[in-house]
Every structure is written in C-alpha cells, then in structure tokens.
C-alpha cells in the first residue's frame, strides 16, 4: 500500500526546518549507500552524525507518534533515525531506480532493523523545483510531488528513484519503518479495517456491532504482529 500522509509538519515547522538545514554541512549522499547504490546516486545529505540531523529527526519522530493516520498504516515497531537529502538542479543531481536494502543499522540505534516501509517527508513545495520521486509498482509508475510537510509511505520492496531535478532544489527527509506486521497485504487489511471502524464510530457511536469489529481488528493484529 502506498499512502499520502498530510500535515506531518506544519507550515511554520517546515520553514524552521529549512532555515536550520540551509546552514547545515551537506556531504556526498553516496556515503550512506553501498557500492551498488553509489553507482546510481548523486545528491547531497546532511551527515547522519550531525547535531541538526539528530535534533530535527527527533522532532519528526515525535510528530509521527502523534499522527494517527501514519500509526494506523505503518504499525511501527522501529523507525530509523530520519535523514535529510537535497537534489540541486545546478549540480544535475538524481538517484536512479533502485531498491532499498532489506536491513539497516545506524550508529545511534544499535543492532539491525528490517525495512518494511520507506518514507519521504517533503520539505520543499512542488513550486520550488522540477522533478518527482517516482515509485514503480504493479500498476505502473507513480510520480510523487507532495506539499511541504506531507509524507509518502510505501513498501520498501518497490523500485523507486528521483530523476534529475531540472529547476530549483528538492529537500526532503527520509527514513525506514520496521512494522509490527511484516506482510504488506495484512497491514493494508488492518489499515482499511481501522479506517472503517473510525468512520463508522463517528457516524453510529459505540454499538455492539462496533465492539465486534474492534475485537476482530485486535485479534487479527494479535495474530499477525511480531514484537
């Protein structure tokens, strides 16, 4: 399932993030990928060990924890520390089609995590640049250019890339999620059931039928979750 999560960051938060990132130390983005990925990747990133990366990343994680839509869709067990990248038209930067590594580690988060979901949080408005995150799935190619502060969440099994930015700068945060539910199909079923429950509850209130649906949701989650 691919999902647009609006308003993870407010407009004022986006402005503040951009101001801090403009003054950050940007390094070659190939430092965070293996040799195969480096052949396709040409962009800039803020060092993952930089203080601004940690501070802004913590604020993103806090915002995600408050976002009911994200939590319902991702059912997060672990979230990698958010990183920040920039694609500049003047540098003709791009990232060819690739698939994210199945597992990741990070100096501030010991051990390994499985990457079930990939996430991009947009910090540039669509009007600021030309080019789009392109995600390939069984229905074709999807070009994603969301408002600043919005997030796209998608299975890490999908090929994706960023074509050369033709104008302006594209600034984003990106990270990965290990879900409590490994299967994308099962996560999608749980998400759709949860969203239906929320809608029906607002229309009908608490009923015996609602209690039955809630019970089924939690029993399915109990059956499928790995913690």
TrEMBL record:
Positions of Fe cation binding: 98, 100, 160
Keywords, ordered alphabetically: Dioxygenase, Iron, Metal-binding, Oxidoreductase, Vitamin C
Binding-site positions, 2-oxoglutarate: 170
Cofactor requirement: Fe(2+); L-ascorbate
Domain Fe2OG dioxygenase, residue spans: 78-179
Cofactor note: Binds 1 Fe(2+) ion per subunit.
Domain of life (superkingdom): Bacteria
InterPro entries documented for this protein: Oxoglu/Fe-dep_dioxygenase_dom, PKHD_C, PKHD_hydroxylase, Pro_4_hyd_alph
GO biological process: one example: intracellular iron ion homeostasis
Claim: DNA-binding is one of the keywords in the record: no
Xref: Pfam families: PKHD_C (PF18331)
EC assignment: 1.14.11.-
GO terms, molecular function: 2-oxoglutarate-dependent dioxygenase activity; iron ion binding; L-ascorbic acid binding
PANTHER family the record matches: PKHD-TYPE HYDROXYLASE YBIX
Classification via HAMAP family: Hydroxyl_YbiX (MF_00657)
Name this protein carries in UniProt: Iron-uptake factor PiuC
